[in-house]
Amino acid sequence: MKLTIFGTGYVGLVTGACLAEVGHTVVCMDVDQGKIDKLKAGVIPIWEPGLQPIVERNVAEGRLRFTTDVEEAVKHAEVQFIAVGTPPDEDGSADLQYVLAVAESIARHMPRYRVVVNKSTVPVGTADKVQAKIEQILAERGEAIPFDVVSNPEFLKEGAAVGDFLKPDRIIIGTRSAKAQERMRELYEPFNRNHDRTQFMDVRSAELTKYAANAMLATKISFMNELANMAELLGADIEEVRKGIGADPRIGYHFIYPGCGYGGSCFPKDVQALGRSADQIGYDAPLLKAVEAVNNRQKTTLFTKLARHFGGAEALRGKTIAVWGLAFKPNTDDMREAPSRTLIEALWEAGAKVRAYDPVAMDETRRIYGERLDLALCGNKYSALEGADALAICTEWQQFRAPDFEEMQALLRAKLIIDGRNLYNPDRLTDDGWHYYSIGRSQPQTSSPKEPNESMPKPEALGC
Ligand SMILES: NC(=O)c1ccc[n+]([C@@H]2O[C@H](COP(=O)([O-])OP(=O)(O)OC[C@H]3O[C@@H](n4cnc5c(N)ncnc54)[C@H](O)[C@@H]3O)[C@@H](O)[C@H]2O)c1
């Protein structure tokens, strides 16, 4: 089939590449000329494992091409996907301006029947708005061209997006149109060889399914973080509790890791947008508000633990903190709403300096923060530690799981780790003389900080 995808971000590019990979002929359209230029030159603008070879192969074999030409994109295919951003509006509700702009473009140029498939995460009722926009533009054109609007939310996870797309748990398709159902079934046929993963439903239920999934996952995380904070105060170990409850098949082990809060481009904005939807229909949704509030507080926990260790936020002035992990989770360079940003910005606010390292998000960090005297972007995890007064861990990259503690000790000015991902064994580190703070487990008795390692040069003297 011929397919068009509007938006070549994480979702649009993965969708376009994977649909080409199974044999469709795909045009990816984006308004960002720079992004399209890069893609035409063979440069993938995002870091997503496994994506590069798929894009290269399908471009070379003529099944995938990139354009900024709206007319070409609309004329190319009967099925038009919308995969543009839906960032939070000022009040937290989803900003639909990009989705509606694409709807308008499609309506201006469609020569005959089109299936308009919305893949962006959008509030219930958006398909009606897309429908109305297309009808309005067609009326302006004086045309009565038939079309269907379908909701087909995307469930891929950044960092595992290619695998998720090629082997989906489920394919949710919201439409009551038999013609649109037939087209959608045909285009997803290659993903259903083993068993049919498609679930057809009405448009509104499909739109709500996406928010329900993200809100459920965010709720699990906030619930565990709430319990972790209580465990610290009660003298319990949340990791033992996690295994204890995970053994119950009704609960399961997935997604119950305590940590320094969820981030990314989806959970924070989607929980917020669902909350605003509740407000708009006059429904009080205290659980959703609590999930968001618990997460916002949890994202400050690393700073709070650091400040407490040093005897107050004022004591952080002039200190240097190494930060491992900047992306909101491993295997991505996405830093939207990342807990690392909450920590780093609070450290700057307190007058501290940051030495940061992430395996893939260094360019993104540079793009977000630019050159600053209080930020050193370091070439590897050990150089980030040179002369730092403490290490804070924000992202559970594999390479942080079993570091050389002796080398770390030699580089840091004090044996102090604030771990937002519970990577290490607290007993072992404590026995080795580390001050090791983690989430929901026994914390060191806060005492005056250990004597710094005076043989270390001051960090100002060190470049990265
Ligand atoms: N990132 C994820 O993991 C993920 C997963 C599932 C669903 N989603 C949802 O998918 C949607 C897209 O997310 P994303 O992370 O890919 O966003 P993104 O910001 O990475 O990409 C959006 C792209 O759309 C482009 N765009 C904006 N207006 C356009 C227009 N009029 N025509 C063509 N292109 C246009 C932008 O230039 C950008 O390249 C969002 O609604 C998001 O919530 C994201």
Detailed description of the structure:
The chain has 464 residues and is of the alpha/beta class. The protein is built from 17 helices and 14 strands. It has helices spanning 10-21, 33-40, 51-60, 70-76, 97-109, 126-141, 161-166, 178-188, 203-234, 238-246, 267-280, 286-298, 301-310, 339-349, 362-369, 405-411, 426-431; strands spanning 2-6, 25-29, 64-67, 79-82, 114-118, 147-151, 171-174, 198-201, 320-324, 353-357, 375-377, 390-393, 416-419, 435-437. The radius of gyration is 24 Å and the shape is elongated. It starts with a strand and ends in a 27-residue tail after the last strand.
Shape: elongated
What is the mean pLDDT? 95
Attached small molecules:
nicotinamide-adenine-dinucleotide
Low-confidence sequence ranges:
457-463
The Rg value, from CA coordinates, equals 24 Å
Helical percentage: 40-55%
Distance between the termini: 50 Å
The biggest sheet amounts to:
6 strands, parallel
How many individual β-strands?
Answer: 14
Q: Structural class from helices and strands?
A: alpha/beta
Query: Helix count, per DSSP?
Result: 17
Topology:
Layout: E1 2-6, H1 10-21, E2 25-29, H2 33-40, H3 51-60, E3 64-67, H4 70-76, E4 79-82, H5 97-109, E5 114-118, H6 126-141, E6 147-151, H7 161-166, E7 171-174, H8 178-188, E8 198-201, H9 203-234, H10 238-246, H11 267-280, H12 286-298, H13 301-310, E9 320-324, H14 339-349, E10 353-357, H15 362-369, E11 375-377, E12 390-393, H16 405-411, E13 416-419, H17 426-431, E14 435-437
Parallel strand pairs: 1-2, 1-4, 2-3, 4-5, 5-6, 7-8, 9-10, 9-12, 10-11, 12-13, 13-14
Bound molecules: nicotinamide-adenine-dinucleotide.
